[in-house]
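User: Fold this; tokens only.

Assistant: Input:
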Amino acid sequence: MNKTAYHALREQAAWVDLSGRGKIRATGEDRVRLLHAMCTNHVQQLIPGTGCYAFFLTAQGRILADANVFAMPDYLLLDTEPGVLQRLVEHLDKFIIADDVSLHDFSQATATIAVEGPQSEAVLNKLGGMPAHVPGSLVEWGHRQIAHASYTGGTGYLIFVDAQRKHELVAELEAAGVPQASLDDAETVRIENGRPRYGVDFTEAQIPHETRLLNAIHFSKGCYLGQEIVERVRSRGQVNRLLTPVRIEAAEPPARGTTVQREGKDVGEITSAAFSPALSTVVAFAILRSEAIQKGDLSTAAGARVTTAERSAPTTEH
């Protein structure tokens, strides 16, 4: 871990190269109607320059992918995890029948640089970026775009820039005294902040309510693929397993998949973990049975004490 960059992510500002993230541009007159019918959030109410976070579900209500969806005057931009890009494109393409919609993968041609930390907005303002204050918004910055969307779950922005001009942006950030943080640094901070990642902390094995990321769901938007399951779970008000931020009394973070127990019985497993220098303990996410969360007294199979932590990720219902 680069302690200088790590502390900058928490207390000042640092940049992270996230160019591996998937980027899809949807064009055509039917793009809004199609995406609205395919994801959990309200794409139809987005005006140019605004965005939202959403899940794409299977017919069985399982999470196929997540994405930041941004509306521009003549296209929709989807920003998603690297490992799900191709699957998401194929999934959407299956439902384009007589629709005027085209999907373009421009991930390789466009780099993604995250600027994260409490001073990230001030840094971008100083460089002339003028990022918008509203979460989910997207503004033009010359040949770049700045999205108010955080990778670590704190204050942060994603900058989309032509891959061949990425070095220009990096040079400006470094000239402004902004250090580069590694993906490992960013992973530690995002776990500290209680921001889970698709493909790491939750997968197609989960339904939306299990993630507790209810800001991804608009409960009155109308029909979309997988909505019947989402509404059934909401109306019953019972979820058996929940993704939960935890702290572990151990010197080293346990491996992904490590069993969590209560009174010798398996009640869940660790999905991601890192040692937090700021908190002097291991921070992690775990998928846990709901009753075990309420009763407490948890530990890993090796005997390390596990306690649930306050969740800082957004959980607002629309």
